[in-house]
Input
Amino acid sequence: MEANTAREEEGRGPQKESAEEYLHRTSLERSLTGIFIVWLRDFKRFWRDTPRRLGAFVQPLVYLFLLGTGLQAAFKVFGAGETKYVTFMFPGILGMTVLFTSVFSSISILWDRQFGFLKEILVSPVPRTSVAVGKVFGGATTAVLQGTVLLVLMFLPNIFGFSWNTLGKALALIPLMILLALAMTSVGVAIGARLKSFEAFPILMNFLLMPLFFLSGAMFPLQGLPGWMNFLTKINPLSYGVDMLRAVALKGVDLTAGVNVMSKLPAEAAAKLQANPQLMEALQKVFPKMPTVQTQAHPLWLDVLVVAGFGAVMLGVAIWQFNRQE
Amino acid sequence: MNNNGVIIQTEDLVKKFGDLVAVDSVNFEVMAGEVFGFLGPNGAGKTTTMNMLSTILRPTSGTAVINGWDIVDHQNEVRESIGMVFQDPSLDDTLTARENLEFHAVVYHIARGERERRMEEVLDMVSLSERADDRVETYSGGMKRRLEIARGLLHYPKVLFLDEPTIGLDPQTRNYIWEYIEDLKQREGITIFLTTHYMEEAEHCDRIAVIDVGKIIALDTPEKLKDDVGGDVIRLTTEDDDAALAELTSRYPDLDMLNDPECKLCFEREHGEEFVPELIREFGVKIVSINIHRPTLDDVFLKLTGKEIRDEGGDRKEAMMKLASRRGAAPGTRSRGR
Output
C-alpha cells in the first residue's frame, strides 16, 4: 500500500503545469520511450544473432559481385560492347537489399507472436502506435546497415572509384536509403501485424515482392518496354525508389562509353567509310548504335515525394493493424 | 479502496467465437487483497475470461470494472492496474532476465531512478539475482515461470493475473511458486486472480469460482464448497465386522451408512475428525483401522457437473502431460474420489 501512494505521488508531476499539459507531455514521452524500447529490443536481437549479422553483411556482396559480374559478362556475350553494367546495377542492388531486408524483417512480429512476447507487449500500457513505429524503425535499421555495407563498396575502382565525388554520392544516398527502408518496412509491418502463419509469410512476401522488384528497374533500365509493362512500372512505388537512388548514384556517369565502332577502326579505314554513305548505312544496320541508357525516368523531387507518400500510407496501415490487434 | 473493497466486478461478461459461446454471461466480484481462483476443465472459458479482464480480448457483450476502470472504455488504465502471467511463456529468450525486466519497466513507465531498485527487489524475491545477467534461453522452465511472476509484479499492480501459474512444473517448483504467492499476498496485499485446473492449487484460494462450459456453477470458499458436498466418509475395519455393524447402528441410529456391499462399515458423517475419537473411546469391538476421507474439490466438481475435471478432453499437450504424470508420478499424489 505504501508503494501505491509513492507511485501516485511520483505520477503527480510538477505543480507549475496544468493537469492537461502534464498529461499531454507524459503521453508524448511515453509514446516516444515506447518506440525506443521496441526498437532497442529488435536491434539487440539482430545484433546478438551472429549468423544473422554475418549474413546481413555478406548478402549484399553476393548480389553485387556474383549477380552483377555475371550479368555484365552476359551482356558482352550478346554483343553490346563494353558497358558499366555493375555500375548501372549498383543503385538497383542497393534498392533490392533495402527492399528485401526491410520487408522480411517484419517476420519478427510473427516470432514474437509464436513465442508469446507479443502478448507481453499488447497487454502493457504502451500505445499500439508506438509498437508499430518501433517495429518499423527496428526493421529499417537492419536494412540501412546492410545498405551501408554496399555504400562502402562504391569506392571500388570498377564501380565508382575512389574520389571525393563518390564520397559525396555515398553521403547523399544515406537519407534516401533511410526513407526507402522506412517505407518498405512499413509494408512488411502492415502485413506481418496480423498474419499468423509462418508458411504464408514468405509465400505472400515473394508473391508481392518479386513483381515489385522486377518492375522496379533495379535489374534493367525501364526503356523500350511494351506498353502494359511500362504502365506497371509507372504505378510501382519501388520503381520511384530505385529511380531516386539512381538519380544520385549515376549522376554524371557515362554508362555506355567505349561502344563506338568507328573509334576501333584505323583512322584511314574510318575516313573511307565515312566517305561512302551507302556503306555507312549498311554498317549501321549490322552494328546498331548503342542507345543511351536512360538513368533517370522522373525528377528526383517526384521520386522522393512518391516514396515518402507511399511510406506514410503504409505506416498508417501498419499502425491501424496494430491498433486492431486483439 | 473504492466500492467497498471490490476490485474486480463483472457485468454479464460474454465472449462468442462464431457460434461457440466461450463465456456465457459471467458475473462475479473479487475483493481487494484476496486470492480468487477460477477452477474448471480445459475449454471451460477460464483463460477467455482472464483475457477479457486483462484487455487482450474484447467482450462480445457485457463488461467489467477493474480498480475502478472499465475494461472496454479505459483499456490503458486497466493495463496499468494489472500484472499478467500468461499460461504460455512470454519472455524474450534472447535477452537476459534483467533486459526482460527493463523492457517491462519502460513500457509500464516506471521512473528511471526507480527501475534498478525494483528490479533488484523482484529478482531477489524469486531468487534469480545471481542469474539475472544470463540469457533467458539458459533458464529451466521453473526459473522462467518465476521470472514471469517477478516481471508481473515489477510495476506494483493492484491485481496480479496468473493463468495456470504452475502448469507443467514439477511439484517442488510448484510449491515454491505457491510460497511466493502466499508471501506476496501477505506483504504486498495485492489481489491475485488465478485460473487452474489443479484441485490442490484451488485449495490455496480464499474463494473459488467453479466454471464449466462458460458458466459459473458455484462460487464460495473451498471449505464451504466441500461442506456442501456432504460429510466425511469414514471406513472402519474391525476384527468382527458384523458385531461392529450391530453396535454402530444401535448406538447411532441416524448414522448415514453407505450400504455398499464392498464396504459394510462405511458411513458419512459431518466433522468426521471429531466423531472418530468419540467413537473409539467406547467401542466394544476391536478396531483394526480407520480411514477418513474428506471431500475434495474433485468431489465438488463431480457433484456439480456429474463429471471429473480431469476427464475433460483437453488439448494434446495436456493429454501428453496427463499420460506422463500417470506413468511417472508416485501413486497417491492425487486422491481420487470415492
